[in-house]
Amino acid sequence: MNTATLLISCPDRKGLSAAIANFLYTYNANIVHVDQHQDTTENLFLMRVEWDLTDFTLDMEAFTPAFAPIADRFQMEWKVALSSRRQRMAIFVSKYDHCLVDLLHRYRSGELPCEIPLIISNHPDCEPLARFYGIPFHVIPVSKDNKAEAEAQQKALLAEHGIDLIVLARYMQVLSHDFTADYPQRVINIHHSFLPAFDGAKPYHRAFARGVKLIGATSHYVTEVLDDGPIIEQDVIRISHREDVDSLIRKGRDLERIVLSRAVRWHLENRVLVYSNKTVIFS
Amino acid sequence: MNTATLLISCPDRKGLSAAIANFLYTYNANIVHVDQHQDTTENLFLMRVEWDLTDFTLDMEAFTPAFAPIADRFQMEWKVALSSRRQRMAIFVSKYDHCLVDLLHRYRSGELPCEIPLIISNHPDCEPLARFYGIPFHVIPVSKDNKAEAEAQQKALLAEHGIDLIVLARYMQVLSHDFTADYPQRVINIHHSFLPAFDGAKPYHRAFARGVKLIGATSHYVTEVLDDGPIIEQDVIRISHREDVDSLIRKGRDLERIVLSRAVRWHLENRVLVYSNKTVIFS
Amino acid sequence: MNTATLLISCPDRKGLSAAIANFLYTYNANIVHVDQHQDTTENLFLMRVEWDLTDFTLDMEAFTPAFAPIADRFQMEWKVALSSRRQRMAIFVSKYDHCLVDLLHRYRSGELPCEIPLIISNHPDCEPLARFYGIPFHVIPVSKDNKAEAEAQQKALLAEHGIDLIVLARYMQVLSHDFTADYPQRVINIHHSFLPAFDGAKPYHRAFARGVKLIGATSHYVTEVLDDGPIIEQDVIRISHREDVDSLIRKGRDLERIVLSRAVRWHLENRVLVYSNKTVIFS
Amino acid sequence: MNTATLLISCPDRKGLSAAIANFLYTYNANIVHVDQHQDTTENLFLMRVEWDLTDFTLDMEAFTPAFAPIADRFQMEWKVALSSRRQRMAIFVSKYDHCLVDLLHRYRSGELPCEIPLIISNHPDCEPLARFYGIPFHVIPVSKDNKAEAEAQQKALLAEHGIDLIVLARYMQVLSHDFTADYPQRVINIHHSFLPAFDGAKPYHRAFARGVKLIGATSHYVTEVLDDGPIIEQDVIRISHREDVDSLIRKGRDLERIVLSRAVRWHLENRVLVYSNKTVIFS
């Protein structure tokens, strides 16, 4: 099915639902999914609506001018996405390959509606895997001394391939603020703890030392502040006193894979809206 | 806040959302919650919309005639509920009191928006608890021989107190078909297994014998077929080989309490729609 | 069944298991539960063994001198507990009564093997509940000015009633270090977050502000440092963007009840061993 | 670390623990893991003990005659396994490759202590994947007409490669009783439902039709009766009314991968004991 998805965020006002519903009805939209949410404390209206384009009488090239009066009237932040235009996703990875294996398998089995034009790594280890899936693999070593140059190289590749979304699949380098500022809400990271607990380095070791009874993983958009961006998804698993740090790391890999892949899929399906450093997931 | 909630189920057709949104906008509704769902296989449209009545310009007494043309045009099954009119709930219980204790505490702390005019039991054991919460307690013993009379007595009490919803809080008698037919989608039961596994008697014993690794509980609407009605909520908890049947029963009580109370609250908040022997939960 | 339970913690050395097993076999112990754990990083041996006393040929009055040579040889920290001697538990509560209701119901239904000689509160609100369960209720108001006196009164009551364990069932006062030092590993608190995230005040509000996707609760032994004692149990529940702070608080109550009651039961059944600010749960 | 693991199952009798502990102490065993369980209803004693072989003074070639007197005295069923002798595992697969991808990645990253000398499939689809991991891949088509011959071929391959364990990673053929009888408790299957619910065909479709609120997956040993063997592991995930059968299948894949891999790992680490059509997991 060929669909369009509209994501809207604006101050909540009467008449909003009617205005949007009437607009879509005017052009004979066959709606397949609607979800909306009102944040009463912030007086915000947030909506996702997806419709089948088969009978839609408005040419999508003309959508923006046609919708603009409504968007202006209600001071909307909005975007529209077409299922026919798959997002272009780059994966950054270091040596740990479990998230990469998982993303590539989901990609090939059709779970992730995207193109993956390239994988970037600071190590060559994952290259055979990339080759197996037929995806160009670029090794760009990163050290204290060459960080700026390395990022320049990375940026050039991203620009060249028209990348929409960057996924840090256990990429062990911190991106500079300049870098992430270029991709607001378009860099997804997986952190191996239940944030805000154990942000920063060595979360499994610290979870072990603290004696927690559950460990977690968190996928989030990357912002200026380390491990502080809007959380997209989290999950946890129970551990016992029988387990050592290695066991936590092993169990954690399963969480990381699943939590990261959910976030990536939701992003690619235009199910995520960000406000106030939080996310709404229109699932 | 004084609100009205509209629940709608009808064949999915273009213009539905617009018709409803326009109707509400016409009377200046301040919408606080909307959720809708399309079942594409059955071509069904299901919706819950709740609005603040403060600025609503249509007298709710006049709602039905005003909304009827839209309802007719789209062949809706619908109902509207007012938060000012709390549902009247009867609890049936036998000797196990853990669900009763839980419901009464939630009721008193304001979690359950309802009145509880009476508790009916086939045993006197729970009477002190009912008295503590100030709720009339009726003992109606049930045996093979007097079942019809007992149900007649129960029905008379329910009618007398204008009961909307019956909650079977581990009530150990099977209600007759005649009885439940009088309260379609208005009798909620808690079954102590993860249905459809272990329907019928002694589910914990059978779960133990089968060697499952998780046990569950299921709340559902009661229908003609035992343990086969629309499922409202389910949950599970992990067990280990260290646990015996008594331990399963103990752990299961926590599930039963929580799973039943969620179902009851969702029903009372008009969040449940039933179709095709399933439920939609507008949470 | 009348049982004895031995809890042991000591440096791990060869021959430990054999020494303990031989000792118990010598006196014809009928073992019903054994669990042991080795922490290889700290070279610690931790064990719980419970045996039926029916055929046990050693008088339990003579247990300590009989076991002492083994305990000395292996530098054990150890204790033995008899199921015939139920621990004496005091509950501290403020105004929120959900954990209290839960503990009292479990107590009366036999889930918690203890005596509850008294409940202490800084408010009179929960008194009717205590009276319903037939448990003496002492109101000791606490303010900045009278804290020392109030604690003196509390301590006097605890001493008078021979209290073994203090449970803080959402008691909204911080106990002084002097107080908790008198009851090492014998004061259990419930904190309404997934520690170490959101320690301190208003965890639900902060969880809401951070936009987490799961909320949690943590039961732990109280130590000098606020919310930093050994964790006994934790659990979490999923939340969505649809939920506000009130909803988090409501959902959290279910977690608090369950997480606290598990910790209390495990403690009363002598299933908890503490080392390195962590717990081993011999379940 | 080079270890030996002893698994014991026998009638529970006094002196058992002492006899085993003394035996191991006699030969200077450095125990790294002990777990034991008594099933009081069946009067069974079940134990797993693992020890470091570094200082062990008994040659493992001589273990059986040395241990035999104790084993005989207590009527033990027992086996001893050496970590130095990795089990040889065959994977059977059809077209769905998600479990295979997962097992092979875990195998290569060292999570699964085994050799994988071959993969057998009734379709050629997964061959590139097998080649990527360097594992011989045998295509043996199966139809109604050639089933006996196909199994004969499979058996010959298994015998030739000295296979200890067969993992059915979504293998879509039912093995004959003769076949499974040759590998008692050595064939692990993944069933895509929470057994005993939805045993047999099309479990996701039936789960969808029944309107359950959670879906599950179950790994179990294969026996004569379809989907009725001893359960090794189960897990579930929540679904909502928003999800269709395709979504259940997608979510279920994550469950299948994790539930199967846990069972395989526990089996390979000699953590599973079977009795009364149940499993004890010494985790």
TrEMBL record, chains A, B, C, D:
Pathway(s) this gene product operates in, as recorded in its UniProt entry: Purine metabolism; IMP biosynthesis via de novo pathway; formate from 10-formyl-5,6,7,8-tetrahydrofolate: step 1/1
Domain ACT: 5-85
Functional note: Catalyzes the hydrolysis of 10-formyltetrahydrofolate (formyl-FH4) to formate and tetrahydrofolate (FH4).
Protein name as catalogued: Formyltetrahydrofolate deformylase
Keyword set includes Ribosomal protein: no
Family from the record: Belongs to the PurU family.
Gene Ontology BP annotations: 'de novo' IMP biosynthetic process; one-carbon metabolic process
InterPro entries noted in UniProt: ACT-like_dom_sf, ACT_dom, Formyl-FH4-Hydrolase_C, Formyl_transf_N, Formyl_transf_N_sf, PurU, PurU_ACT
Reaction(s) catalysed by this chain's protein: (6R)-10-formyltetrahydrofolate + H2O = (6S)-5,6,7,8-tetrahydrofolate + formate + H(+)
EC numbers for this chain: 3.5.1.10
Molecular functions (GO terms): formyltetrahydrofolate deformylase activity
PANTHER family assigned: FORMYLTETRAHYDROFOLATE DEFORMYLASE, FORMYLTETRAHYDROFOLATE DEFORMYLASE 2, MITOCHONDRIAL
